[in-house]
Amino acid sequence: RHSTIPVLLAELGSGSGLAALTGAAAPLGLCELARAVDEERAPERPFAEAAGLRLVASTQPGDPAPLPAGALERLLDDARAAHGLVVVDAGQPTARDAERLLAIADHLLLCVPATAAGVHRAELQLAGGLLGRMGATGRGALVCAATQPGARPQVRQLRRLADGRVDRLLLVPHLPQLAHGELDQPAFEPTLVALATILRSRA
Length: 203
Prior knowledge:
33% of the residues lie in helices and 18% in strands. It has seven helices and seven strands; from the N terminus they run βααββαβαβαβαβα. The chain has helices spanning 18-22, 30-38, 71-82, 95-104, 116-127, 155-162, 189-200; strands at residues 7-11, 48-50, 53-56, 85-89, 107-113, 139-145, 168-172. The strands form two sheets. The chain has a four-stranded mixed β-sheet. Strand 2 (48-50) and strand 3 form a beta hairpin. Helix 2 crosses helix 3. The mean pLDDT is 81.
C-alpha cells in the first residue's frame, strides 16, 4: 500500500480463489497470459484492477497443456520490470510449476494454518527440500496463521521446524475482520510490518 509503483498480484492456477476474494477477474490466468505473450497474442486486458492492485486471476479453467519452455519466466521478468512488487499465489503447485517459480523467486512465503495438519504439511514440504530448490538469491519464511479463534500453534515445534530451513518464522493472529477484507486493523499492523521487513530483505 506504500508502493509508488504498481503492485501485481497473480494466481498460478485459474479459479483458485483470488478472483472470488477480490471481486475482480482478468480474462486470462497467469499461465494463459504467459502462453499468449509467448505466442505474440496481445490480450486486450492483461490484468484487472482490484483494491489498488493489478490482478491476474481468472475464473475460467486453465489450459492443461504444458507451457512452452521459458514462457512463465519471461512473463515474470517483464512483470518485475514494470512493478514495484510481484506476488504469485502458487497454491499447491505441481512439481513442474514449483520448480519454475522457485528458481526465479526472490522470496518464498510458505503459508500454513495454525493446525496440527497445517504444521505437519509444512514439515513434509520443508523436509522434501522445497526451499533447497530456490534460486541463489531466494529467501524463505514460514507463515503460520491462526484461522480459528483460540487457535494456539505449537510455537516450540514451529521454531524447531523453521530452524535452519527458513530465515523467518511469522505467526499471524486470528482476526475475524480479515475474512471481510478489512486489513487496516491496528492489531494486524505488526504482521504487515513483519511482512514488509521480510520482503525488503536481500540474501
